[in-house]
Hints:
By secondary structure, this protein is an alpha+beta fold. Helices cover 44% and strands 16% of the residues.
Amino acid sequence: xxxxxxxxxxxxxxxxxDTRTVYxxxxxxxxxxxxxxxxxxxxxxxxxYTIWNFIPKNLFEQFRRIANFYFLIIFLVQLMIDxxxxxxxxxxxxxxxxxxxxxxxxxxxxxxxxADNEVNGAPVFVVRSGSLVQTRSKNIRxxxxxxxxxxxxxxxxLVLLSSDRAEGTCHIxxxxxxGETNLKTHYSVPETAVSQSVSRLESLQAVVxxxxxxxxxxxxxxxxxxxxxxxxxxxxxxxxxxxTKEIFGVAVYTGMESKMALNYKCKSQKRxxxxxxxxxxxxxxLGILLFEAILSTILKYAWQAENKxxxxxxxxxxxxxxxxxxxxxxISDFLAFLVLYNFIxxxxxxxxxxxxxxxxxxxxxxxxxxxHEESDQKAQVNTSDLNEELGxxxxxxxxxxxxxxxxxxxxxxxxxxGIKYQEINGKLIPEGMTxxxxxxxxxxxxxxxxxxxxxxxxTVQISYDQVDGPGDPFSHANGFSxxxxxxxxxxxxxxxxxxxxxxxxxxxxxxxxxxxxGCLFNSCVSARRYKLLHVLEFDADRRRMSKGLRTLVxxxxxxxxxxxxxxxxxxxxxRTALQQREERLVEVFNFIEKDLELLGxxxxxxxxxxKVQETIExxxxxxxxxxxxxxxxxxxxVSVSLSCxxxxxxxxxxxxxxxxxDSDPLYTLFRSEKDHVxxxxxxxDGASLSxxxxxxxxxxxxxxxxxxxxxxxxxxxxQKAKVVRLLKTSPEKPITLAIGDxxxxxxxxxxxxxxxxxxxxxxxxxxxxxxxxxxxxxxLAKLLxxxxxxxxxxxxxxxxxxxYKNVCFITPQFxxxxxCFVYLTLYNICFxxxxxxxxxxxxxxxxxxxxxxxxxxxxxxxxxxxxxFKTFLYWTFLGFCHAFIFFFGSYTLMGEDTTLxxxxxxxGNWTFGTLVFTVMVITVTLKLALETxxxxxxxxxVTWGSIAFYFIFSLFYGGIIWPFLHTQDMYFIFVQLLSxxxxxxxxFIIVITCLFPDVIKKVFYRHLQPTSTQKSQVSVRLPPQxxxx
Length: 1029
């Protein structure tokens, strides 16, 4: 219990040793000197809070915001000294903001907890006390022997002990980790492979000694007897068991110490560029507030310099006031003015922003254009704090496999005996012929050797659904059994085998493994069984892909019996060598693969996701640079980049690969990319990237920024995050977005300003750790170009409008001081809040279809242009101008003993203040109406309804004597004001005076200096009463 509490609080000490010793089945030594090592439990935690730290951690994060901390100080000042306003005016809105934000963030984190609990509570089987026991995934301990059945995911990082296969192998897919759908073979050691029953596993006496958890695992020893282990013996958490009935493995890394979890980056609070701009504006307004408070305090003491004003007969000082310190009185008066004017910094802005983000986030999930019908998946929002950041993206970092591609290979064409064939309506037809041509089909006898090589020389595994009763496994040999499922270590092989089975009724059985008697070749002439003798594994030098289609050259060599005996002997010696095994194998492979007879070649293509090329082109037109970060090989990655439009055929491709120490190639690239006449693309691999970042970071970044497209291949997960962090922390501070579908993409998704998870076929790690999730890459275009555009313009106007209307509100008070507590509170809560909230939810400058068809419009809002310092100064200046017109326009009307009532009665101070406030409410509401381009019934309702509510409330509030109010200063004031025709005339003149120059400015700029967005507004007319979400 104590250890669990320490883990929750983050105080659990790190491992003391560099290695860990895992006792299989937790059979620890019986001598008394042994102290068991402590390991993490098997819980996965993607959430940010716990029930114990939520309140302190959330409060700490919220009060890191300048605005929240400022209002906390104001609230405390109101509690400590006598101020003109009640502490409720600051405390209640602050409590509301803190509570709403905490509830929103708590709800979003609860969803993460819920997803974690589904994973941690999944049922698993472990071997304990001589039997197979069902427990929950979170209860697995290091050393437990875990049983995993077919199609189940591995609940921890396991060392394979045995499987149902006699040779102790198993097949897995790592789709949820890296997006790869190909089959991978893993092995157990001979000493444990025979332990296929619970009783034999329970009696196993062995230990695993390995390093402490790191991103890259390298095992040191196994067991008794000592035997080295490698990646082929390790089953990673998140991978899925395929084509194997069951396996047993010992847990060596659990929970947050598994490789999948280690590739995660620690969660941090992401803040949008708009929020950072708000903090900057807040500091400026804080300066204005301090200036007004200091000036008012000085003017007060200057006014009180005369005795008749310092202590008038109607307000005599007490002895305590006369004897009090002048310095303390000055500070007290300064704080009182500070509290009086504090509404220039609108806490209601933060309330409205939180509501706008939360309510606006639903539009993404409701958008049917982001719904994927095949998988029945809609877009989802995991955090609403970054909505407007979608409109500011400058760099997109994307994974390749499973994000740009489906990772499904499709057969395109082949060459046999120099003749090119293409598939037409399920038949292989020579180029230039039709399927009706008499010589159109591939001759069976003449081309049988090519077909035999393609059909038998592969590592494809075939899984059958079990049926009751005995049956002949070769009864499936027609290749059309609906119960068959194909798996392969290479998706290319799988595509070829499936296609040739479909075309020629050729088939190879699941047990096509070395020395097995289970391979069948069924042609149109006869059916024969074959024994697969050896598999010569591909390596980086012997397996090379061409750009464009992924091609495989097919060749053969005939051996006599004696020659084969020599080959078999040399292969056995190389594979059992204890030293220089890899070099000796390469030597034997080269000896075998010589004097080959060319039979033909095949061409397959990695199937791209729908509209990937159009999406990348739209992003490029929008001024967004796309970087592809993948763990794939150099040739494969370049091929996909060309096919998806990331690289153009006319682009000059610069390559920085396989660099170990020489930096000259980097300088050569730097000189090459200086040619701005043509576009450049850069290809860099993980090893070269590490070298470049270590020795020539600035030079490397200069090359990257001047390239139109960058491709990083052979990248480790944390290298992806490092590249993202390098760009986001560069001097230009660009806004970055990372998108991926696998667990290996989580680190870069968490590192980027905005992280997007692709809802893949298997695994949800990327989705759970992302800010937004979509089903396909093509949805990224609308998410950024439409939703991002709308969110940004809405919240940019919302922020600046709030500062503007609060300047309008507080400046007359500075000019005439405080006049009414009720109106002070209701101004931001009731009279002017709803129009800007509705505007921030529904405003559209142009139609969504226009934004998608003209991606360049995205450039109009890039680099936080609508919240630039120039725009901020304009809104602030406008607020001060309107405030002065409100005050001095009313003062001019009512000054010099002017009679405005029909009975000759004059207006008093309360009537003057009410006139100023009435003009203010009408003007700031109509100002927002001028900014609105897209009118819905809701905009009309809240705009005109807010003005009407102000009049109705004022008549009601001032028309009744309220028994619970201490004073009745506003009684009958509003009715008296509205009964004067001169007052109505003044309201009309002042409102027109404020807004007319703004109208002239808008017309002038629209006709002389229109933006691209304004030009689109003129060229495309929106259908009336159309609300686009």
